[in-house]
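Have a close read of the entry that follows and walk me through the local backbone shapes. See right below:
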Amino acid sequence: MKFSQSSSSNSNNLIRVAKLGRLNKLIKLVRLVKVMKLKSGIMQFMSNVFNMGKGIERITLLIIASLLVCHVFACLWIVFSSFGDPGASNWMNDEIKAMSTSD
């Protein structure tokens, strides 16, 4: 009898964990909808202020997205360079030394 009670409580716990995963996905979906509404609001504002057509809006959005992706990759490049040995010679340490000695 004890075994069946503990196994049912374990299965209840597993069901709860599965529901938490679905709740997390729902929260992410709500965030995505909020971001999409914000993006459309910003683009509508820019369209009204600058009197842009749909083609210019798309090109502007493409440029902004490209700059954002480049920025993220540059930040990751800097972070990954710091994972090595602090005393080792790499491009980041060399740049820091060159900047500090040039002043």
